[in-house]
Amino acid sequence: MTDSAHIPVTQLQPPGADSEAVACSNCAACCCQLEVMLITETGVPERYISTDDWGGEVMLRLDDGWCAALDRDSMRCSIYEQRPLICREFEMASPECIEERRGMATIYR
Ligand code: SF4
Ligand code: SF4
Q1: In angstroms, rounded to a whole number, what is the distance separating the alpha carbons of residues 74 and 87?
Q2: How far away, in angstroms, is 65 Cα from ligand 2 center?
Q3: Contact (Cβ atoms closer than 8 angstroms) between residue 102 and residue 16
Q4: CA of 67 to the centre of ligand 2 (A)
Q5: SS3 of 57, please?
């Protein structure tokens, strides 16, 4: 019988994570540059809402591409409790998240 206390534990990293774990706290809010459609009512303030070319409501993005609701000092969402459904469903460390982080890393390099 194996003594589980002696089995070596390896911390697996998500793909593309390099040596640092994938976390919003070590990310420049990469996913907050994506277009975010408003498909349900979550209470996003009007001043952060724009209309896309097809008449759909989206989060307003500023000239540098980041969402207007992003707090630039903390790089956190300033309307977290009212954030759109799409933002709620965007999972940290998901393949989409990794891809966005990778995209930003190549911009900065
Ligand atoms: S979900 Fe992913 S891409 Fe978005 S802020 Fe968090 S770590 Fe960055
Ligand atoms: S609403 Fe918040 S979480 Fe969604 S893109 Fe804007 S800043 Fe990011």
Answers
A1: 17
A2: 12
A3: yes
A4: 6
A5: strand
Pocket perturbation via mutation, ligand 2, pick of 77, 89, 104 by most ligand atoms within 8 A of CB: 77
CA 43 to chain centre: 19
User: Which of the ligands is closest to the CA of residue 21?
Assistant: 1
Domain residue spans in the chain?
22-108
Query: How far is ligand 1, taken at its centre, from the CA of residue 53, in Å?
Result: 26
Ligand 2: distance of its center to the CA of 33 in Å? 8
As a whole number of angstroms, the distance between CA 46 and CA 54 comes to 18
What are residue 75's phi and psi, to 5 degrees?
Answer: 55, 40
What sign for the dihedral angle of Cα 106, 86, 51, 71?
Answer: negative
pLDDT in tens, 3-24: 555 766 555 555 544 557 999 9
Q: Which ligand is nearest to the CA of 87?
A: 2
pLDDT tens per residue across span 98-109: 999 998 866 654
